[in-house]
């Protein structure tokens, strides 16, 4: 199964307690695509400027990511400058230059419109709706969003949410969207808006899946060294959707495995700046860490000795 992803392509400058990099490859569509490409074919739709380095195009093609939907426009590529403090929990935006991304109007190539899975990365919900008007009966539609759109484009966001199968957002956004302080109550309220599945990203605490009849919670991988958490959520989504595309099944047991694969991919991403860890990553490493995740959460049944 093929995955269509629509999102941002950026050049990031990042400072963390471990170091600093300038104008490295970033953006939601990039992190998602690279992670998903370990499992399935990816069709990427985004926009770049004339200044976008050719070396990045070459790398994406080497990952077998289809770039027919990557629009190149006059002007500069979207840039983001951010900084993390010692706890790594929050990114502080120092500068944002939307450049060509400011006028991004996603046009889905004909050969992408029948992609079986669609992922709407964190962009304006009005653009997400335009994408949904162009695709043809995907089997699964998943969506990401953020507090900015909840606060400024709530009506359009709710229209998008009505049309999707899976919503992937963080814990704070769940509570803000539902206007509810209790996470489970907030999750139930969001499910009533349309999605069948809510995936809650909880950062260093892991991830949770809430469905109408069940709840599944997975821990984060315990890392000794974190270098750069940028893109971890998008990488999680890429691993999650990539595994689903590879399995061809959307039953709950596969969704649970997909969450673990998403967490595995995110855990590798934060070990180096940008997507550098994913450049050298091998699938046996992914499988090995999946096995470690399973051991983290395994425990025996209660034995009745009487």
Topology:
Layout: E1 2-6, E2 10-16, E3 19-26, H1 28-36, E4 41-49, H2 54-62, E5 65-73, E6 78-84, E7 91-97, E8 117-120, H3 125-132, E9 140-144, H4 147-152, H5 154-162, E10 166-170, H6 171-178, H7 183-191, E11 197-201, E12 207-211, E13 215-218, H8 232-247, H9 252-269, H10 276-280, H11 283-296
Helix pairs in contact: 1-8, 3-5, 6-7, 8-9, 9-11
Q: What would the keywords be for this entry?
A:
single chain; 306 residues; alpha/beta; UDP-N-acetylmuramoyl-L-alanine:D-glutamate ligase; nine-stranded mixed sheet; four-stranded mixed sheet; 11 helices; 13 strands; globular
Report on this structure.
This protein is an alpha/beta fold and 306 residues long. The chain has one domain: 3-Layer(aba) Sandwich (UDP-N-acetylmuramoyl-L-alanine:D-glutamate ligase), CATH 3.40.1190.20. 36% of the residues lie in helices and 26% in strands. The protein has eleven helices and 13 strands. It has helices spanning 28-36, 54-62, 125-132, 147-152, 154-162, 171-178, 183-191, 232-247, 252-269, 276-280, 283-296, and strands at residues 2-6, 10-16, 19-26, 41-49, 65-73, 78-84, 91-97, 117-120, 140-144, 166-170, 197-201, 207-211, 215-218. The strands form two sheets. The protein has a nine-stranded mixed sheet, sandwiched between helices. A four-stranded mixed sheet has the order 3-2-6-7. A hairpin with a 2-residue loop joins strand 2 (10-16) and strand 3 (19-26). Helix 1 runs parallel beside helix 8 (232-247), helix 3 (125-132) runs parallel beside helix 5 (154-162) and helix 6 (171-178) crosses helix 7 (183-191). The chain is globular, with a radius of gyration of 19 Å. The model has no long low-confidence stretch (mean pLDDT 95).
